[in-house]
Amino acid sequence: MALVPTTTPTINNGPLIAEVDMGSDSNAPTVRATVVQASTIFYDTPATLDKAERLLAEAAGYGSQLVVFPEAFIGGYPRGSNFGIIIGIRTAKGPEVDRLAAMAGKYKVHLVMGVIERDGYTLYCTVLFFDSQGHYLGKHRKLMPTGMERAMWGFGDGSTIPVFETPLGKIGAAICWENRMPLLRTAMYAKGVEIYCAPTADAREVWQASMTHIALEGGCFVLSANQFCRRKDYPPPPEYVFAGTEEDLTPDSVVCAGGSVIISPLGNVLAGPNYEGEALISADLDLGEIARAKFDFDVVGHYSRPEVLSLSVKDHPTNPVTFASTSTKS
């Protein structure tokens, strides 16, 4: 993108304001992306993996290069639960992770998948990343579980706030309400995130305002994927009870209305939001738009004041026990 002319003409011995090309980068690639809006098959991880593969195959058939699934798609989001149940049963890296990697490689897509991860005896709300060659890239653990989620899920730390460099661009993710944490977002912007994935469980219309704000603030594409669920998608009572509302629900009652959406760095809605049912919501991402957005506003570049406001991120694992071993030679 040309920013200044090759010569500097003057008027009255003063420089002209440089003519600036505010357009997008014509050499930047276009990425076809899909957010999946669908329900988990509760208490049945193998069946949910089968469903995920069907949806992934369908998205790949549309030419999608990047597919983003909702929060806790594998393992199930405990919506309305009284938490008297067991949900997460898997540990990354395990056989389910291997299958997800194989699916990404089979359909030649980059995959961002929301799961419930078990590490030892602690559950985490996690996003797993895979490339189109079938390689597991890494994970992000939700830093701050919301409300009663804290009764079940552990807290992530600064060691799992990745932004992965891929042929499609720099991809990262934040989960549900941690997207409202400005310091977390700033850390991701500093890592250069270009495709910002936001798996969520929030189907309220106000969520759209948050997603638009992040796209404008970060100068990035925002891909938010949520589940669409009816009461009949969950096990019947007493196996699963929606605390406080169960008696008002019918099998067809919508308990999560979706709202999955794709937004450009300039704040334009490219696809969605969808509140109608299960769907694949796709858009072509012109990565050249990022240059235009960043020229106007770069929150960790020319529109920052680090001498006044700065952020320090502790990006090492925070283990509860550290062993300090000392070896001595005899």
From TrEMBL:
<feature type="active site" description="Proton acceptor">
    <location>
        <position position="71"/>
    </location>
</feature>
<dbReference type="GO" id="GO:0051410">
    <property type="term" value="P:detoxification of nitrogen compound"/>
</dbReference>
<dbReference type="GO" id="GO:0018822">
    <property type="term" value="F:nitrile hydratase activity"/>
</dbReference>
<dbReference type="GO" id="GO:0019500">
    <property type="term" value="P:cyanide catabolic process"/>
</dbReference>
<keyword id="KW-0378">Hydrolase</keyword>
<dbReference type="GO" id="GO:0047427">
    <property type="term" value="F:cyanoalanine nitrilase activity"/>
</dbReference>
<dbReference type="InterPro" id="IPR044149">
    <property type="entry name" value="Nitrilases_CHs"/>
</dbReference>
<dbReference type="GO" id="GO:0047558">
    <property type="term" value="F:3-cyanoalanine hydratase activity"/>
</dbReference>
<dbReference type="Pfam" id="PF00795">
    <property type="entry name" value="CN_hydrolase"/>
</dbReference>
<protein>
    <recommendedName>
        <fullName>3-cyanoalanine hydratase</fullName>
        <ecNumber>3.5.5.4</ecNumber>
        <ecNumber>4.2.1.65</ecNumber>
    </recommendedName>
</protein>
<dbReference type="InterPro" id="IPR036526">
    <property type="entry name" value="C-N_Hydrolase_sf"/>
</dbReference>
<keyword id="KW-0456">Lyase</keyword>
<feature type="domain" description="CN hydrolase">
    <location>
        <begin position="31"/>
        <end position="287"/>
    </location>
</feature>
<comment type="similarity">
    <text>Belongs to the carbon-nitrogen hydrolase superfamily. Nitrilase family.</text>
</comment>
<dbReference type="InterPro" id="IPR000132">
    <property type="entry name" value="Nitrilase/CN_hydratase_CS"/>
</dbReference>
<dbReference type="InterPro" id="IPR003010">
    <property type="entry name" value="C-N_Hydrolase"/>
</dbReference>
